[in-house]
């Protein structure tokens, strides 16, 4: 394992056009860590074994179990035993949260009604951030360039919190949920204002990604990949601008285009601002 807890060297037989070559390669590491909340075994996260403090805090925050930094009273990681211990002020959500095993795969086994209930408990995002398509393209290029573990292995997802001028935090993980949780955890710990920020993703936009973004309070969610219909329905109700297939100078704006400054050939800015406010929603 490398020093950053991300890569493991492996021998490999590489075959190119029928020719065999014995060589070395690196693969991404993956390990289970059990999260204890207030002394009780809570959930097991299978993840890239680094940035574990951010992961634990971000997971609890995006699940509604941590609301304010002052509620967090203790955080300790025991790498040898695969344990993360968190002490925090108990919340109502903690009592109803079902203990489950969380894998590094793209889903966490949560039924759609969990996302809908999560969304109902969130305030719509009303921040008036406006961005240019060129800014979106530049930020996604920065995300791709900064995803160093992906370039070495091809085996992780990346997520980042960004301002229009550039990326603030960038994290990678085997699971895209984990990568987003790490971003959310860092933002929570530093109590950063997110009303003028964007959440950038390398993977597809699902309902859970929208709920996490809305809880984080960012007005714009951008991904290289596609959104799902349920994600877009939730984005409409939560006042979130969703941009998908953001690659180079191309992108699809699915919800709240009022936040994206469109080219001059589109209707004037005054007309675009006459669109329904974010609390109403247009798809």
Keywords:
single chain; 283 residues; alpha/beta; Cytidine Deaminase, domain 2; five-stranded mixed sheet; flat
Q: Please tally the β strands and state the result.
A: 13
Kindly report the spatial arrangement of strands forming the biggest sheet: 9-8-10-11-12-13
Distance between the termini: 46 Å
Q: DSSP helix count?
A: 9
Which spans of ≥5 residues are poorly predicted at pLDDT below 50? 107-113, 273-283
The succession of helices and strands, N to C, reads EEEEHEEHEHHHEEHEHEHEEH
Global structural class: alpha/beta
**Major sheet summary line:** 6 strands, mixed
- Mean of residue pLDDT values: 86
Question: Class of the domain at 133-273, according to the CATH hierarchy?
Answer: Alpha Beta
Q: Would you give the CATH topology of the domain at 133-273?
A: Cytidine Deaminase, domain 2
| Gyration radius over CA | 20 Å
User: What amount of the residues lies in strands?
Assistant: 25-35%
Form type: flat
CATH homologous superfamily designation of the domain at 133-273 = Cytidine Deaminase, domain 2
Fraction in helix? 25-40%
CATH architecture of the domain at 133-273: 3-Layer(aba) Sandwich
Your description of this structure?
Helix 1 (52-62) packs across helix 6, helix 3 runs parallel beside helix 7 (207-216) and helix 7 runs parallel beside helix 8. The chain has nine helices and 13 strands. With 283 residues, the protein is of the alpha/beta class. It has a domain at 133-273: Cytidine Deaminase, domain 2. The strands form three sheets. A six-stranded mixed sheet has the order 9-8-10-11-12-13, sandwiched between helices. The chain has a five-stranded mixed sheet with strand order 5-6-3-4-7, with helices on one face. Strands 1-2 form a two-stranded antiparallel ribbon.
